[in-house]
């Protein structure tokens, strides 16, 4: 038996699926107005974030000890929630895709998906509580 030229591995479908995914990512386009609006909001928000408050009568700055803790806690909680939401979305997406491919094991996949999602939810809740405690203990 003669060996095949590719070493016995047919990787053409894999390469074409990567190419399709890359082209799909490149086709995401944003209008110029939306890009400028986002850039303006980012720059304006950054300027407002670090500007000292003009109406402060006692001369306090925006980022004293308590303000920095509140800011860091709220940003941390937001990041934790975004990560947890993305993880649960990926878990659900993978579970539905695998159930569609093999419907006979849908019950097992569903159980594993629920356990994994509960663990991600628990870790997310723990992260939010830690951020909240960091804000409140000042």
Structural account:
With 138 residues, the chain is mainly alpha-helical. The protein has a domain at 66-138: F1FO ATP Synthase, CATH 1.20.20. Helices cover 74% and strands 0% of the residues. It has four helices and no strands. It has helices at residues 12-26, 32-50, 65-101, 106-136. Helix 3 runs antiparallel to helix 4. The radius of gyration is 24 Å and the shape is flat. The mean pLDDT is 78.
- Low-pLDDT stretches are none
End-to-end distance, in Å? 75 Å
Would you report the number of β strands?
0
Query: In the CATH hierarchy, what is the architecture of the domain at 66-138 at level 2?
Result: Up-down Bundle
CATH topology of the domain at 66-138: F1FO ATP Synthase
- How would the global form be characterised? flat
Please identify the top-level CATH class of the domain at 66-138: Mainly Alpha
Summarize the structure.
This protein is an all-alpha fold and about 140 residues long. It contains 4 helices and no strands.
Task: Outline the secondary-structure elements.
Blueprint: H1 12-26, H2 32-50, H3 65-101, H4 106-136
What keywords describe this structure?
flat; single chain; F1FO ATP Synthase; 0% strand
């Amino acid at each position: 038996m003669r060996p095949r030229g590719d070493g016995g591995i047919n990787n053409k479908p894999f390469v074409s699926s990567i190419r399709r995914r890359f082209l799909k990512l490149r086709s995401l386009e944003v209008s110029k107005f939306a890009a400028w609006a986002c850039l303006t909001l980012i720059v304006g928000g950054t300027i407002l974030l670090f500007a000292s408050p003009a109406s402060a009568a006692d001369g306090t700055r925006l980022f004293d000890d308590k303000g920095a803790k509140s800011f860091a806690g709220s940003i941390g909680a937001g990041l934790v929630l975004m990560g947890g939401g993305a993880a649960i979305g990926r878990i659900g997406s993978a579970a539905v895709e695998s159930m569609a491919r093999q419907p006979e094991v849908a019950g097992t996949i569903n159980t594993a998906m629920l356990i994994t999602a509960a663990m991600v939810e628990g870790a997310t809740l723990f992260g939010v509580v830690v951020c909240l405690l960091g804000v409140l203990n000042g």
